[in-house]
Amino acid sequence: MRHHFEALKKTGANHLSLSPLSFLRRAQSLHGPRTAVIYGDTQRSWSDTVARIQAVAGGLVGLGLQKGDTVSVLSPNIPELFELHFAVPLTGAVLNTLNTRLEPETIAYILDHADTKLVIVDRELVPLLTQAFDHLGRTLPVVEIADPAAAGETLGGPTYEALVSSDPLPLVLPDDEWDAIALNYTSGTSGRPKGVVYHHRGAYLMAMGTASAWQMPPYPVYLSVVPMFHCNGWGHPWLMAMLGGTVVFTRTPAAGLILEAIRTHGVTHFGAAPIVLQMLVEAESAAAPFDPAIRVMTAGAPPPPSILEKTRAMGFDVMQVYGLTETYGHISQCLWQEDWNDLTPAEQAELQAQQGIAFPMVEEVAVIDRTSGALVPRDGTTQGEIAIRGNTVMAGYYKDADATAAAFADGWFWSGDGAVVHDNAYIQIRDRLKDVIISGGENISSVEVEAVLYRHEAVQAAAVVAMPHAKWGEVPCAFVELRDGFTPTTEDLIAFCRAHLAGFKAPKAVIFDTLPKTSTGKIQKFQLRDRAKDLE
Is the N or the C terminus of the chain less surrounded, counting Cβ atoms within 10 Å? Predict the structure, then answer.
């Protein structure tokens, strides 16, 4: 039997490509006179910002840019990089935001692997790009951002502001929402970074889902702290156009600049890694708390509960989220529950350290036993691997079919993160699977041990890895970076851990040293694991 429903077809009236470019029309019509960006003495309305975006897009086309071409950008968080999140996809090209903290050799690898046609560079970073070109063995066409707030060099290329005088491109949506909008490279803590392809549909849904999950009102004042080279700033640039937000830039994420911007401009929201929150806690410990509270989203690593407790006392309403480059950023959230209100600050912070429940635009965030294929029970102890599916999972890895197939095995994206599920359905990361320490048959979460170490007043940073042991197979070894002025002994820290953990979980060795970190501030545990192998 044929149903009449089948006669109804997709048409230009009822089915259009989803793309964050559509938010520009809304921004132009609804938010036009409102302030879009604040950077030093520069303030621009949404009308002016949209006009600049259209002109820059026209200028890029004038330089020969075509649909599907990659545009790599090497810039700190400034208005030009914000504009390029719209201007590049408006041309049909693909935005590749380069991590400004990478070494020249890796930048050269990305420029080559990404098939970059044009590089847009802030002049302060021209020396880094020049070194990358040396490694690459060739140069590429360059457009330079001449930011008066920073010194810099020039390669003699056209300036970004010259593009702003170009004939504007009309605001049109892509023909296909599956078209690539961005190419983001993983941090590459082991091996070469992989190119993660985002499509317009996912970027649109990430913005819509974030607005709901963060319960954001219209016209937020958003401080741009999350680097836009990291998952396109977690998709927040596109979100701001939808909500008519004001985006405040500081160029560098220094604690003093962040706190000054919050007070000067009435910041209501920002995102930041736990290491930035720790920096703010240390800079602001004696000041009165912010009122009303500042809404903060944190991600990048499980935040130590001690930091969450201190930021809450500062007037930061911190929500932890979890995600990966491959999922456009955050896809689960530790949403506050009313029954937490009566708990102590320390108990609340422990709960806030969970990774929580799926964002509304994500279909499933599950924890699965890879051996049996079954969901783990909600007992808070049985560990599995976090697996994700939904429309904000990457299209795949650029030019790497084998890695794409492995990541998408059995219809899930496999995160590589080990986690448990609590009885309230909230997930909590126990470790990257390779970071689990198995001692005498017992699984030890390095994250749990690190959280205890961070509670010690002397500890600036901590990382716990496996150390070989003749009897137990492996035991925890802690690498600790100390705060200035503190000189605890190994025995002091081991005793502190034993007072807060089961004895088998306490470190059996403590090494005091500066911890190796990636360009995004993540501790490079693989280096520490190599060192620990020789410590038996």
Answer: N
